[in-house]
Amino acid sequence: MLATEQIALALLRHPAKVTVFVPHYAMSGGTMIALAANEIVMDENAVLGPVDPQVGQFPAVSILNAVGQKNVNRIDDSTLVMADIAEKAVKQVETSLVKLLKDKLPPERVSEFAKELSAWKWTHDYPIFCGELRQMGLNVNVNVPDLIYDLMELYPQPIQRMPSVQYIPLPYEKKEARKS
Question: pTM score, two decimals?
Fold first, then answer.
């Protein structure tokens, strides 16, 4: 999040109008950068995503939820340390989002939206479409200029051998070889 936050704060301080174009998606750090702009221009089918921090291989909020469901005396020290880091990470991201949103939303909505985006509502890969962003109070324009699409055609993405959309709730783990 360090680099993302540095970019977002630099955009926020930039004296000229900043427009971010989202032709397909801007997830996590991309969402944070988009929120720093004065104007977000998205394709009607494009999405932003949550900015929920990840600690190791897990969502920070999931670590906190798991620890909250167990007796603290039955949790190992490394998990407690991870929970401490997770709590700090969520607070840090919420604070950053409040800075980015304070001039873009009604004051009573800023804290709630920062909390939604930072951890407490969706999974990390949840797509937030234009209509939902508008309902949340963000000013999103859906008139992406053809020039943006033309520019993107100059940088084709490599063809993947795997499907482009997968839901994997947990990372792959190496399975031990079976002994014969």
Answer: 0.80
